[in-house]
Amino acid sequence: MFKGVLFDLDGVITDTAEFHYRAWKKLGDEIGIPLDRSFNEQLKGVSREDSLTLLLAHGKKEEQFSKTEFLELAKRKNEYYLEMIQSITPKDVFPGILELLKDLRANNIKISLASASKNGPFLLAKMGLESYFDAIADPAKVANGKPAPDIFLLAAKEIGLTPRDCIGIEDAKAGIAAIIASGAQPIGVGRSEDLGEDIPIVPDTASLTFDYLKKTWQPNA
After folding, report:
1. Which residues form a coiled coil (predicted)?
2. Is 93 helix (H, G, I), strand (E, B) or coil?
3. Is 25 labeled as ligand-binding?
């Protein structure tokens, strides 16, 4: 039986992905880099700084900004995003997530957040979910963002477990790769053509039940 569950936030607990897209698009328009939804797929699950690096490379402007200007752009994007997410409430929690969190707590399963978002604590508080989480991995403490395993390694460590005893839940390809690299067992939310054919996948969060997690768990040899 697994002992912990490591949750991504964007696209798993709630949909802040649309706010991220709008904030990146606004910044892109300001610096002359058009951004569409297709390119935005590459930014999902990726840290703010790495996303900005990808955006600048996309616009062939990676050499145009100093380190200070780069950090200012990242800060500006986050300010746009924070303005947009002020309206989030418990009603924005995806279907099935609250029930899953309650079932995990009732069965003494540890719960940790493994999100690239530095706004994780704020968002959990806005949705009334912070009390369900035993730990929130701080993305500022990891050297490498997803698809590197660092954030999932830290999320497991923060609840006193090894990743081998945990399930990781993600909706992005980079996140699934990070879970696998960490040694945890992945469950994807979305489509197999986006996330991979060789892992358990649910079409939506309403299908993420405690029974489903137990059914997909493969005891480590």
Report:
1. none
2. coil
3. no
